[in-house]
Design brief:
Strand content: under 5%
Number of strands: 0
Main location: membrane
Helix content: over 70%
Number of helices: 4
Number of domains: 1
Distance between the termini: 11 Å
Protein name: Guanidinium exporter
InterPro entries: EmrE-like, Small_drug/metabolite_transptr, Small_multidrug_res
Keywords: Cell membrane, Membrane, Transmembrane, Transmembrane helix, Transport
Shape: flat
Transmembrane segments: 27-46, 58-79, 85-102
């Protein structure tokens, strides 16, 4: 169950990062509120997953999901640049997430 919580926490990290971008520096109420709700939920699920998963594993995977997800949303929804170096960086992050998962005894 811890892995499910961790994955959900990572998805919520993507959600709140996107909402933060939409909030225009916390000047728009709805995206600001959604950012805060997403942050609280994401941190809460991360905390629950850490009851059984090692700190290094849980935190690395959580931030990795958020980083790659935010990168993908930036490209897909916000028209951010797609360059070979950015794609390579994203692939390296995904590789790190997979290796961290495979190295975890849980």
């Amino acid at each position: 169950m811890a892995w499910t919580y961790l994955f959900a926490a990572g998805l919520l990290e993507i959600f709140w990062a996107y909402q933060m971008k939409r909030s225009e520096g916390f000047t728009l109420l709805a995206p600001t509120v959604l950012t805060l709700i997403g942050m609280i939920a994401s941190f809460g699920l991360l905390s629950v997953s850490m009851k059984t998963l090692p700190l290094g594993t849980a935190y690395t995977i959580w931030t990795g999901i958020g980083a790659v997800g935010a990168f993908a949303i930036g490209i897909a929804a916000l028209g951010e640049a797609v360059t070979p170096m950015r794609l390579l960086a994203g692939a390296l992050i995904v590789s790190g997430i997979v290796l961290m998962k495979l190295s975890s005894p849980h």
